[in-house]
Amino acid sequence: MAGKDVDDEPGGYRPGEIDETGRPWPDLPEVQPPHRPPLGIVIALTNQKGGVGKTTTTINLGAALVEDGRRVLLVDLDPQGSLSIGLGINPHTLSHSVYDLLIPRGQVSVDDVIMASNVDGLDILPANIDLSAAEVQLVSEVAREQTLMRVLDKVKDRYDIILIDCAPSLGLLTINALTAADFVLIPLECEFFALRGVALLTDTIAKVQERLNSNLRVLGVAPTMFDHRTLHAREVLERVLDAFGDEVFHTVIRRTIKFPETTVAGEPITTYASASGGAQAYRSLAREVLARL
Ligand SMILES: Nc1ncnc2c1ncn2[C@@H]1O[C@H](COP(=O)(O)OP(=O)(O)OP(=O)(O)O)[C@@H](O)[C@H]1O
Ligand SMILES: [Mg+2]
Known about the structure:
Layout: E1 41-45, H1 54-67, E2 72-77, H2 82-86, H3 98-102, H4 110-113, E3 115-116, E4 122-125, H5 131-137, H6 147-153, E5 161-166, H7 172-180, E6 183-189, H8 198-211, E7 217-224, H9 231-244, H10 258-265, H11 269-272, H12 277-292
Parallel strand pairs: 1-5, 1-6, 2-4, 2-5, 6-7
Antiparallel strand pairs: 3-4
The structure holds adenosine-5'-triphosphate and magnesium ion.
């Protein structure tokens, strides 16, 4: 392909330098060794808008956190199974999936479902289309909103961070994720309709905080698919900053063809194109996340 990919731009700001969000880059603390025993912090990646980078962020933030020495579990809570596919797992051939843990039939334990990914220290609870039935079946369960929480409670002591990749919906599965989570991370695509529907999302978060999980906090808003060459994307980013202020991460994920390529390769960008701007961006987001936890 002729021309320069947006991703090729130099990344990495020095503290105080004005970054892509127009604010001085923070002086982030050095990454500390992980707490032992692991803290088991749960982060839900949620936005009911489709295709904003939830799955891409879950995989690559997870892989970057592993580079920082964290043990990470990724939970695929989307019947599309994109997270599983993105890590090279064929969802159609799974003998067990998250579904079996939410709607137990017989004796499937969480250990039967957890799989190691091709990145050392990065595990996954995979999903497939079976999960779409759970949304309906959970309705008649007792304490239906706490089902995922009960599952994750069994493995929290093994992981530093558990990232939940939500489906583009605010249905019962997403409510389960928000109920199980300590934090919610909101990926926002830097395009015209980015903020449409965000009020509904923040409303939903507020309701979960009030009724189901008073511990839930917004960890931050991650701008994704940013094309710094267009005035339009810069204007959208400004509006996102007006709306969310300091909740917006300093790290802006640029639009690059490398991300779709990583899905085909079935691995994170941190291993697929380790030196790329996209990989560096997710490493930088990981540092910001660790500083905010
Ligand atoms: N920074 C980026 N630059 C270019 N393409 C990207 C970027 N991030 C993600 N993509 C691509 O955009 C598409 C949607 O991304 P992704 O699947 O991560 O979004 P999502 O919010 O999880 O979608 P869904 O709502 O369907 O679950 C994918 O094809 C992905 O490879
Ligand atoms: Mg997704």
